[in-house]
């Protein structure tokens, strides 16, 4: 009687009485009694080992387990083994055949026992009075409570009833693109807190990525009031500035925000490990993916620029990008935006719909006006797609008079500086003078145009009071550059109509 076994290429012959020198390749124990074997490749199996099923389903692991033959460490009992094991090749998960064969809850005599995927033994209600020190929950790591703790005393494994009922078996985490499955591993390094751990972990076997349960279940940015959170902006958990975890970093009180570049004082988050990473509470809520009208082909992702691209110009304002800061980027097109440039949205139309102008206020500019040829310093309009720049005064369709909720009277577009603010004509060129906007109460460039009420001497910066201009038709064409990785546009023809 022969036998075809899936782990050997040859047909195994039935041997009525095994030789004591035969060693079973499955359990690695001597063979006595009936067995199957191949003398050519010296492969022998106990009769019982040869009949083990090729694959099984087990409550301790969500994937099917296949019978395999090699050295391993059992993910259930943490003991090393060789020979047969039941293995998940996707998750790199192994169990001894003996561990798989342990009894599970299947009869009415098992009252009071619970079979849970966090542990390979049945769990029972634990009397904490027998412990000198209260054991801790394997999930939340807090002391267990009387009358609500289930566990396995032989394995020193305990769980709160509430934690056992609410822990998810599979999660999606911002630190990793693949789904993470709850597993047990004897030894691993958490990719969140970088600590050596053992026991429960959320893991991706394909990528060998693991997070301990505490890091895996940290609140996200959306959770208000949490002292420790997770965010896609950094690969480690982030601690609220001022709590013990943040204070233990040993760093000074002033830190630069990785999003906006301003100082983080006491309203932000820092890396809970040792990274020099700080971010404002407001900046941490930035979207990780945006769809921006300046780059319609693909979404832009908030990320750090690769080292070789540090100093690359922003595709919008042409100013260098700071490699220390997060920026919005499309890798395929090499299109990059400063965080603050991504906040600018086209809101002024000039010409056909493709020719859309964005107001740039309080941003230094290296551009010249395409109409008058003079420097466009601040408060200018620019079409990023075709790189067309124009002063507000040079725009024929600019609203010369507007009404706004900030002032009861009409406001007129006026060239600054205003006469009443100057003692003499030479003062117009005095760079030391300070001029302010009556809306935002911040300093303004005195040569920039303003909206002005002569009766009240009320002065408002353009960016503080307008949202859009009416369209003005012009004949302009845009052609996509063939072979351009930046997917930018250039003007083939532009004719301005003067009002």
Automatic annotation (TrEMBL):
Pfam families the UniProt entry points to: C1_2
GO molecular function: zinc ion binding
Name of the protein described by the UniProt record: Phorbol-ester/DAG-type domain-containing protein
PROSITE patterns: ZF_DAG_PE_2
PANTHER family given in the database record: CYSTEINE_HISTIDINE-RICH C1 DOMAIN FAMILY PROTEIN, PHORBOL-ESTER/DAG-TYPE DOMAIN-CONTAINING PROTEIN
Lineage summary: Eukaryota, Viridiplantae, Streptophyta, Embryophyta, Tracheophyta
Domain Phorbol-ester/DAG-type: start-end pairs: 297-349, 354-406
Organism for this UniProt entry: Gossypium darwinii
Superkingdom per UniProt: Eukaryota
Key words, A-Z: Metal-binding, Repeat, Zinc, Zinc-finger
């Amino acid at each position: 009687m022969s036998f075809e076994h899936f782990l050997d290429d040859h047909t195994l012959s039935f041997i009525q009485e095994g030789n004591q020198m035969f060693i079973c390749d499955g359990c690695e124990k001597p063979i006595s009694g009936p067995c199957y074997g191949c003398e050519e490749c010296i492969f022998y199996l106990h009769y019982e080992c040869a009949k083990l099923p090729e694959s099984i389903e087990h409550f301790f692991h969500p994937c099917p387990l296949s019978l395999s033959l090699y050295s391993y460490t059992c993910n259930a009992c943490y003991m090393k083994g060789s020979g047969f094991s039941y293995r998940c090749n996707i998750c790199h998960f192994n169990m001894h055949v003996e561990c798989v064969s342990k009894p599970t809850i299947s009869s009415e005599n098992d009252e009071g026992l619970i079979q849970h995927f966090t542990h390979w033994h049945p769990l029972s209600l634990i009397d904490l009075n027998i412990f000198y020190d209260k054991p801790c929950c394997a999930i939340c790591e807090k002391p267990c409570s009387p009358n609500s703790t289930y566990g396995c005393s032989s394995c020193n494994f305990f769980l709160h009833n509430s934690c056992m009922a609410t822990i998810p078996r599979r999660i999606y985490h911002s630190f990793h693109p693949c789904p993470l499955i709850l597993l047990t591993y004897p030894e691993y390094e958490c990719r969140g807190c970088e600590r050596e751990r053992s026991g429960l972990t959320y893991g991706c076997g394909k990528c060998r990525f693991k997070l301990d349960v505490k890091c895996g279940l940290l609140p996200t940015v959306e959770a208000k009031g949490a002292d420790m959170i997770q965010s896609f902006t950094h690969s480690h958990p982030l601690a609220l500035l001022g709590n013990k975890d943040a204070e233990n970093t040993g760093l000074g009180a002033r830190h630069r925000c990785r999003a906006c570049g301003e100082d983080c004082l006491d309203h932000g988050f820092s890396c809970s490990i040792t990274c020099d990473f700080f971010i404002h509470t407001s900046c941490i809520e930035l979207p990780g993916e945006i769809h921006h009208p300046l780059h319609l082909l693909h979404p832009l992702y908030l990320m750090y620029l690769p080292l070789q691209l540090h100093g690359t110009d922003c595709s919008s304002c042409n100013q260098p990008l700071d490699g220390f800061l997060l920026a919005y980027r499309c890798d395929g097109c090499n299109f990059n935006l400063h965080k603050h440039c991504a906040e600018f949205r086209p809101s002024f139309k000039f010409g056909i719909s493709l020719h859309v102008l964005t107001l740039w206020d309080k941003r230094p500019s290296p551009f010249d006006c395409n109409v008058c040829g003079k420097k466009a310093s601040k408060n200018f309009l620019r079409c990023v797609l075709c790189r067309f720049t124009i002063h507000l005064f040079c725009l024929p369709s600019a609203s010369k008079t507007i009404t706004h909720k900030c002032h009861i009277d009409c406001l007129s577009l006026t060239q600054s500086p205003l006469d009443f603010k100057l003692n003499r004509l030479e003062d117009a060129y005095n760079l030391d003078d300070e001029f302010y906007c009556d809306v935002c109460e911040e300093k303004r460039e005195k040569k920039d145009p303003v909206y002005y009420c002569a009766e009240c001497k009320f002065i408002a910066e353009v960016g503080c009071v307008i949202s859009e201009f009416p369209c003005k038709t012009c004949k302009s064409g845009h052609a996509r550059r063939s072979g351009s990785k930046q997917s930018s546009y250039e003007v083939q023809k532009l004719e301005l109509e003067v009002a």
